[in-house]
Amino acid sequence: MVNGNDLNVQALLVSLRHHMAISYQGDEHNARWCLVGRFPDSSSSWQFGVEQPFLRVFQPVKPQKNRKLGPAFDPSFDPHRDVLSDFPSIAAARLGGTVDEFNRLLSVQLAVCNLRCWHCYVEDCLVWPCEGCPRVETPGCEHGRLSGITYLTATNILDAIRKQIECDRANGQGARHAVRLTGGEPLLAPQLILMLLRGIRERGYERNVWFRCETNLVPLLLLEAVGDKDSYPHRSDGGKLATILDSLAQFRNLSVHPAFHGLSEHGFTANTQVRLPCFDLLINALRSLIARGIDVYPSFGGNVCDPAEIPAFFERLRGISKNLPLRVALRRYDLGYKPIARRIAQLRKSKTPPITFDYGQSIDAWDALIIKAYGRRYAQTPRWRVCL
């Protein structure tokens, strides 16, 4: 546990509490959660049968975009050319069914984030209110935040998911589904995660709906800094973060996908504009999830993280569990994607361009470490087969 009186820690905690407070409206009994309300440039604007504008449809495996399951399922997988996108195989292995049934994520996107990653795929104003923004539409605001976000209760979201499932089944999409809570940062609203999982169970979908939750891990630093005494503002059933995590661990249809946005304190700060008191806090946050038995699948960006920092990161993961590096996937961020390209251009104008790295070098570095430690290649073993 770190010193809660440290000024850097205090600043981080203040920021976390602020972002948690703006993630919802109302009280703990009838919270309305701040979500991205529409995706005008995404697949949901044309995907057949999408019932609600705040549900974004995403296809994890898409060979034409070099997103593949991995060599165990697709012999053509080339880690230098292709990106490991194996979520459907994880869901199918845990719940049964086929990979194809889970190759369609219904995404719900929290419109709040505690980081400022230059490589984020989401438009700035959908997750980071402009300074002084009262969260209402400002005349002349180029992002039109009000038209881009919506506030919904957990029941609203669950009803939309139910209607989508019914629509999919009627249209022959299959009996199994995958729901993704992304962001923004979902762990700024841990009670929402728990409410959605409980609602899926109560509606009888637990055996057929896989729930994927993404995170940057930073909200879990509250555990490390102040222990179990710190409570979230939207309290229910005790409301403490540790209690919520313990409850989440009881769901067998849940996987958590932590993304590391840097492999050291320096790399993290360069990519997120947030200073960590100590990088090992993130490592310990991941440890806390694994210790509770939560199914985790970490990742990091091979073209936004320094390959020179990979060996130390690898050993940090092995310090949590000797097989944990086998659960890691490398991501390749699309630097030409509109929000990212726009930020890169802005940073270049300010003469502080982001530092990018060669994805192939990261793959080679990680692969070499995997071979040396385990005698196999990167992604050779399906991640869901790796025991922690």
Shape annotation:
globular
First-to-last CA distance: 23 Å
How many helices?
A: 13
Q: What summary fits the major beta sheet?
A: 7 strands, mixed
What is the CATH top level name?
Answer: Alpha Beta
Question: Could you give the order of strands across the largest sheet?
Answer: 3-6-8-9-10-11-12
Radius of gyration: 20 Å
Number of domains: 1
CATH topology: TIM Barrel
Low-confidence stretches: 42-46, 134-140, 227-239
CATH architecture group name:
Alpha-Beta Barrel
Order of H and E elements = HEEEEEHEHHEHEHEHHEHHEHEHH
Strand content: 5-15%
> What kind of oligomer do you see?
single chain
CATH superfamily: Aldolase class I
Mean pLDDT: 86
- What fraction, in percent, of the residue positions are helical? 25-40%
Structural class: alpha/beta
Count the E strands. Answer: 12
Overview features:
388 residues, alpha/beta, 7-stranded mixed sheet, 13 helices, 12 strands, 13% strand, globular
Would you mind describing this structure in some detail?
This protein has helices at 7-21, 87-95, 124-127, 145-148, 154-170, 190-202, 221-226, 241-248, 265-272, 280-291, 310-320, 338-349, 359-374, and strands at residues 24-25, 32-36, 56-58, 67-68, 83-84, 105-109, 149-152, 177-182, 209-215, 254-260, 299-301, 329-331. With 388 residues, the chain is α/β, with parallel strands linked by helices. It has one domain: TIM Barrel (Alpha-Beta Barrel). The chain is globular, with a radius of gyration of 20 Å. Mean pLDDT is 86; it is low at 42-46, 134-140 and 227-239.
